[in-house]
Amino acid sequence: MRGIRKKLFITYLIITGIIFLLFYLSQVVFIGKIYTYYKINQLKNYSLKIANALAKNDDKTANELMEESNSKVIAVTDTGNLIFGTHGNGQGYGIGLPKTYLNTDEKLSVVEFTHPSIGVKSLAVIRAFLYNKQNAKLVLTIPLSTITDTTVIFKSEFLLMLLICIVVIIIMSIVMSKKLTKPIDDLKYAAQNIASGNLDVKLDVNTNDELEDLAMSMNSMAENLSKAEKFKRDLIANITHDLKTPLGLIKGYCEMLLDFYGEDKEKRNEYLNAALNEVDRMSKMIDDVLSLSKFQSGLVKLKISSFNLKSLVDDVVLSFEPLLHGKNINIVTENLDVIVNGDAELIRRVIMNLLSNSIKSISESGLITISSILENNHVKVIVSDTGKGIEREKLQNVFKKFYKGDKSGTGLGLAIVKEILDLHGSEYYIESEINKGTLFYFTLNKADI
Asked: pTM of the full predicted structure?
């Protein structure tokens, strides 16, 4: 036993030990007084009952009460006549009580006395009562030894109980300290595993307190670290693969320019343009990777504002006009004149990525439609095209990073779309059919105007 478990054990033991010790000392000091007080009250009650019985000349009841009280009882008139008693002969009517105690005007008194012949200390309760119109005294006595002996027995039994309780406390302290520190040991073990790189840690702590909250946080941390580690591996693998191809092409173009086409201006320009296109693709890939990393790491904070959806979409469509030059692709916008809430720049990026995918899916000619439908307090934004479509079994992969339906892309466009829409709490859905086209929709909150 070491560390916090030992400290808990010692603390628990000391606290409970002090409590029991104080309780024991209080019993040792007060139990004699408490039991004496109890016996005096008991004798007082019996004296009242016996006096009432004698006043009614009910000797039978008086005898029964006398036996029940376990005391010596006498009753004498103030003139000295014995009217009832267990011992009528001898000094003090056989109980050794000095007669001076009987010559008192007190209605009820308690006295201690010593038998003059045998030296036994006794306790007496003396009650005045009326017997056949005569003043009389009823005396109940018990040896003080009965009280002290009983007190000694109580103390011995209590000491035994205290020793048993101490043993139980020690056992409970060990069990409780082990139980209380087990979650801490589990947390320590989990932290050591995480620190050593083992992220497959799952804590099962059910304490309904801060330790359970900490365990849940550590589970979440391990899960997030595992995801981050997987993302890092995927990122390195995919970036390495995707950068290797354009870098190889650029290197090849440069070597060909140096070796063969240095003087051929037309060929030189062709290969330079090809190299520039590859550089642009790498630049876009790096931008997309950085953007996705920011979204997934929680570094992006939404800047919510109200904006006109039509104005935003028109700006995006206008920016794509150079890309559509020479292509038979029409972009139609419908029912977009609505004010919505969201991060305008991020929603612009969503529209751009969706529009870019639609353009890439159309090989020669086709139609792209961007529209919206008002549903309660939400606006459903729909982007559809008449492109080549996506196979049904591949639809579940389109939001995964680095999944590419077209080799010209980076495979990050829809992954970024997903992150942006998740940040907005939007619903989104995609459906597609080969050779017929693809439809994508997402929702935004309608602005209160």
From this structure: 0.48
